[in-house]
Amino acid sequence: MAIEGPFWRAIAVYRVASLVYAAVLMAQQRGYEQPVAGWLVIGVMALWTAGATYAYAVPVLRRWPLLAMDLLVTMACLLASPYVQGSLQGAAGTMPVPATWVAAPVLAWAVYGGRRTGAAAAAVVAAGDLWLVRTPGESVVINGAVLLFLAGVVVGHVARLAKQAEERMQRAAEMEAAQRERERLARDIHDSVLQVLALVQRRGRQIGGEAAELGRLAGEQEAALRELIASRPATPQGATDLRSLLLRYGSPEVTVSTPATPLLLPAETARGAAAAVKAALDNVRAHCGPQARAWVLAESGEGTVTVSIRDDGPGIPDGRLDEARADGRLGVAESIRGRVADLGGHVSIVSVPGQGTEVEITLPS
């Protein structure tokens, strides 16, 4: 991500500055019995600083192999310190050869993976630092380990927040672009397709017969197309707004009512619920006639989403559903009840002769 760039550049600057600091300590020869070996370690540090600076600047190389190599090289330079310090190891005022350079991989791990990976890298480096000290109770060493943990956790947290902010900004930009495109399409479609569909619907009703059925279908497609144009594009990844699926079934004979706020469900659950609603509406059309009225009401409760489908037909006689199931007609049993049961929900059907039928579908949200 582009927002990570400043973090990696800051780590590169830190590597160079801490390398210079380690070289200055080596030049003063304070606490180092084997300065030649020390300069060899400094040389390795310089080579790795150059290589890591280049590698981390290339996004495709920022992967776990590079991070693991970064930590291994740092630990190798740190664990070489006893051979450079000799008998002066642990003496007051002495530092390992890498000095503060060892914090660079901790920062890199934190930027890449967040708080936990930063803390894990800090634990490895701090353990190596503590192992080198002959007087573990020395407060300076303990303070250094604490600072490594704080750096890993804080930098990892800030980097994670920055990534999340960039993702939100990117989604917002995509939503805005999609909305602009939708508005452009709406302007183009409104004066052509929608008007033609509306005309077919009106003329079909006037002519009657088979043309009335064509008019009804044109009305359904007009309502679906209007909803597609007006629908909001933004939903969380992996979720679907059930409203947008239900509103497609709206027509002069079917009234769909939904809340103003999204009814977010897992994509598979939303599609299954919409298919069950369609099966219920198909039953209304098949058993009550094409002119029968139906009402679809969707609402959300505490951890549930409920969709009810009510019609003004003659109702279902007692025992009719059991007879249909025994005869192998499984429209209600499988297309509605079976489908909803597979999604973890349940269906209740209430029918009064002469007063219509109501099918209520309840799903976990």
TrEMBL record:
Residues 158-195 form a coiled coil. Keywords: Coiled coil, Kinase, Membrane, Transferase, Transmembrane, Transmembrane helix, Two-component regulatory system. It catalyses: ATP + protein L-histidine = ADP + protein N-phospho-L-histidine. InterPro entries: DUF5931 (IPR045975), HATPase_C_sf (IPR036890), HATPase_dom (IPR003594), Sensor_HK_TwoCompSys (IPR050482), Sig_transdc_His_kin-like_C (IPR004358). The keyword Signal does not apply. Residues 1-167 form the DUF5931 domain. It is an enzyme of class 2 (transferase). The chain crosses the membrane at residues 12-30, 36-57, 64-84, 90-111, 140-162. Its EC number is 2.7.13.3. Residues 275-364 form the Histidine kinase/HSP90-like ATPase domain. It comes from the Bacteria. GO terms for molecular function: protein histidine kinase activity. One of its GO terms (biological process) is phosphorelay signal transduction system. Gene3D superfamilies: 1.20.5.1930, Histidine kinase-like ATPase, C-terminal domain (3.30.565.10). NCBIfam families: HK_morpho_MacS. This is histidine kinase.
